[in-house]
Amino acid sequence: MFQSILRRLAAPATDTLAEPDARIALAALLVRLARTDGLYSGDEVERIDRVLMQRHGLGPFEAAALRRDAEDLESAAPDTVRFTRAIKAAVPLADRADLMQAMWSVVLSDGLRDEEEDRLMRLVANLLGLTDVDSAVARQRASRA
């Protein structure tokens, strides 16, 4: 199953990605961000589930199942580009700042900021077509929420 998803995520973008592919890509990216500092805490897992519930209108069990699938997919994916490409294809530019806020909320949920997390967040912002300023504003909103 995950090899099929990875193939679709790696394929050249011709049309907007189907919603399930965008969902798993976002969930896998959130997991990757949470794991970047080497600590995958319960707070991060809870925050990922909450983001998935809010973003996709899922119940707690559905969000947890999606996250578990995303954990497996994230482990198998060699790079971050395939996730951001899927998200970029499915989410209009105007809505990506909200996604950055959600991503920052996951990164900040363990109470620590790591250089690797900051580096990955800069890369993700760039790959999603956002600026460092957009990311900084999203981080500030996430830290106040």
Please provide a written account of the structure.
The structure is a single chain. The chain is an all-alpha fold. The chain has helices at 2-10, 19-35, 42-56, 60-76, 81-90, 93-108, 115-127, 132-144. It is built from eight helices and no strands. 37% of the residues are buried. The radius of gyration is 14 Å and the shape is globular. Helix 2 crosses helix 4 (60-76).
Which terms would index this structure?
single chain, 145 residues, mainly alpha, 8 helices, globular
Topology (SSEs and partners):
Elements: H1 2-10, H2 19-35, H3 42-56, H4 60-76, H5 81-90, H6 93-108, H7 115-127, H8 132-144
Mean pLDDT figure: 88
User: How many strand units?
Assistant: 0
Distance linking N and C termini: 36 Å
> How would the global form be characterised?
globular
Nearest-angstrom radius of gyration?
14 Å
Helix/strand/pairing class, anyone?
Answer: mainly alpha
What string, H for helix and E for strand, traces the elements in order? HHHHHHHH
Low-confidence stretches: 9-18
Helix run count: 8
Give the biggest beta sheet. Answer: none
Strand proportion, as a percent range, falls in under 5%
- Fraction of residues in helix: over 70%
Quick summary:
By secondary structure, this protein is mostly helical.
